Amino acid sequence: MSRSDGSDEADRTVPSRIEQGSELAGDPDGYDRLWTPHRMVYIGGQDKPVGDSVEECPFCRAPGRTDTDALLVARGTHAYVLLNLYPYNSGHLMVVPYRHVAGFPDLDVDETAEVALLTQTAMRVLQQVMSPQGFNLGMNQGAVAGAGITAHLHQHVVPRWAGDANFLPIIGRTKALPELLGETRERLAAAWPAPMKG
After folding, report:
1. Structure pTM?
2. How confident is the model over 21-44, as pLDDT tens digits?
3. 152 is an active site residue
4. Cystine design at 122: which of 157, 166, 193, 194 (Cβ 3.0–4.6 Å)?
């Protein structure tokens, strides 16, 4: 994207950089470092609510935005499905109740049923569109369990392929994603069965 001064928008971002272990101070350890400073946005907690604030909760704000802007794939009566902004893999979806609740036991019967139904549908749509070889499903309840947003429950649906945990994420702490999030959202929303089309 070009700016009015003729420079490229990408010029403002810090590029990823690889440093050889032998170039660093101290005893060489044989490891190269792939620096990915753009991940600091996530590490720094951008868009994470403070405490239990509904006003700051990205999961409470998402349904009020357009499907494209919020990366929403489908809307149900009690819950919705959207792409994870910081995906583990391409197609990493989250099933989220509209109601701002932190714990799975806090869902009522209708919400529980729809979260389960949307999770099943998400798996079927991902299978149809992306042909994963497996899935990870899960809810991280509380910060100590790994929840990035603790105040609003969300179910992760992560498609998996053989070799997707290769050296790059393990050593480089970086994921190579073959498709932009907006393009993935369009393909999944188009394949979502009616009446819960996004």
Report:
1. 0.71
2. 556 555 555 555 555 555 555 555
3. no
4. 157
